[in-house]
Amino acid sequence: MGDTLNVGQAIAGLVLRQSATRGIVEEVAAHLKERARDKIGHYQSATGPFEAWPALAESTEREKARLGYPTGSPLLRSGGTRDSIGYSVDGDGMGATVGATDPNMATHEFGNGRVPARPVFGPLIVEEREAMEKALLKGVVAGLGLKR
User: Fold this and answer.
1) Which residue among 5, 29, 61, 135 is least crowded, i.e. fewest CB within 10 A of its CB?
2) CB 70 within 8 A of CB 85
3) Is residue 4 over pLDDT 50?
4) Confidence band (pLDDT; 50, 70, 90) for 3?
5) What integer is the mean pLDDT of 86-98?
6) Using CA atoms, how far apart are residues 3 and 32, in angstroms rounded to an integer?
């Protein structure tokens, strides 16, 4: 019976540690979501291998003004693209996905023959890499039940 209690305590400890790790993963994902949303509507400078965002075409600016949307604010019209950026945490709490549900986001991220790339997520990973590594290390340490 003593062994059963120890196994039960170990399982409870694993569940508690996984919960702590899930909290860290969710914290990192929520932070990345907000940082990605903050990029929409603001020109971005070069980051790592990603080039600075090019200026919007004059025709685009005129059309935005005509329709009552803010000018000088790339990727921002009604806020739909920005608001479509979200995240989900994997069922086991060990990973997360940050992205956008707006189908135009892929064109913005990578460009196409007509629209230049104005990447959001690639530069974000470069900018936030060190902070993500520190936070995730904190989660691993918590997940292992170690004190840091």
Assistant:
1) 5
2) no
3) no
4) very low
5) 88
6) 43
Return d(Cα 20, Cα 139) in angstroms, integer.
Answer: 7
pTM of the model: 0.80
Tokens matching residue 31:
């932070």
What DSSP character marks residue 47?
A: B
Strands (DSSP E) found in 45-144:
85-89, 96-100
Instruction: Put residue 137 in one of left, alpha, beta given phi > 0 → left and psi -120 to 50 → alpha.
Output: alpha
Tokens standing for residue 111: 């460009």
Q: Please state, in angstroms and rounded to a whole number, the distance separating the CA atoms of residues 79 and 98.
A: 18
Whole-Å CA distances, 18 to 26, 39, 65, 100, 132: 12, 32, 50, 27, 18
Closest residue by Cα to residue 145 from 27, 25, 19, 29: 19
- Find the helix or strand (DSSP H, E) in which 144 lies: none
- Helix, strand and coil in the chain, % to nearest 5: 55, 10, 35
For residue 114, count other CB atoms closer than 10 A to its CB: 6
Residue 60, pLDDT > 60, answer yes
Which 8-state DSSP code applies to residue 50? Answer: B
Strands 85-89 and 96-100: antiparallel
